[in-house]
Amino acid sequence: MTDAQHEPHPGKHEMPKTRRPPTRTQVIFGVLGVALCALLGLAITTQVRQTESGDGLDTARPADLLVLLDSLQQRDANLNKEIADLQQSLITMRASGTGNQAVINDAKARLSALSIMAGTVGATGPGVILTIDDPGQGLGAEALLDIINELRAAGAEAIEIKSGDQSVRIGADSWVTGAPGQLIVDGVLLTPPYSVLAIGDPPTLAAAMNIPGGAVDTASRVGGGVTIDQPARVDITTLREPKPRQYAQPGK
Predict the structure, then answer these.
(1) Interacting residues of 77 by C-beta distance below 8 A, sequence separation 6+
(2) Is the full-model pTM beyond 0.85?
C-alpha cells in the first residue's frame, strides 16, 4: 500500500480553507475501504506470523489447531461478507442514480482487488511460476505451507497450486496436510511435481524463494529442486467458492 499524502494543518491564526462536506456515498465507501484494508492486513499478518513461528504448528495441541483453523475460516467468511456488501452497495447506487462516477469507479476497483484476494475471480499479471520436483517424496506439508507464506509476505496478490489435472486457489483459510508426496491442500490431493503460480512483482517473489532457508534450500535438502520462471504474464483461473457464514454477523 502507499502512504496517503496529507496536507499540513492550517496555522493557529489562519482561517481554514472552505471545503465541501463529503457526500454520504463518499463517507460510506471511505469507511468500507478502511475496514476492508484492515481485514486484509490482519489476515496476511497472521499468516506471516505463523510462518515466523517455525515449527510451532508441529507441536501445537489438536485443540489449538482447531481454534486456529476456525479463526482463519471466520476471517475468510468475513472477507466474503464485505465483498457481498460492497457489491450490493454498487447495485443500489446505480439503481438510485446516487454518487458520482469517480466514486463508483473507485468502489469497483476495491471490489476487484478484494475479489482477487478472496479467490472468487480469476487474475492475470506478472509474477512467478515455481516448478517443484520431489523425486524422493521428501517435501512435507510444512515446506509447502512455508512457500505459500513466503510468497504472501513478498507481496503475492494471488496464488494457485497445480498438480497434474488438479489445481487449488489459495485463500485466507487455506490449509496443507498429508504425507510427503501426497500433500492435501484444502481437501485436494496433490502429488509431485507441483507448480505454484503467483502474481506480484517477479524479482521480489523470486528473491523470496532464494533466501537462505527458503523454498529452494528446503527442496534441495530433501533431494528435490525448484525452478523459478518470471513470465510477464501469469494466468490464475482456479476459483474458490465463497463459504456461507455459520456464526458471525456484521457489526452495527
Answers:
(1) 243, 244, 245, 246, 248
(2) no
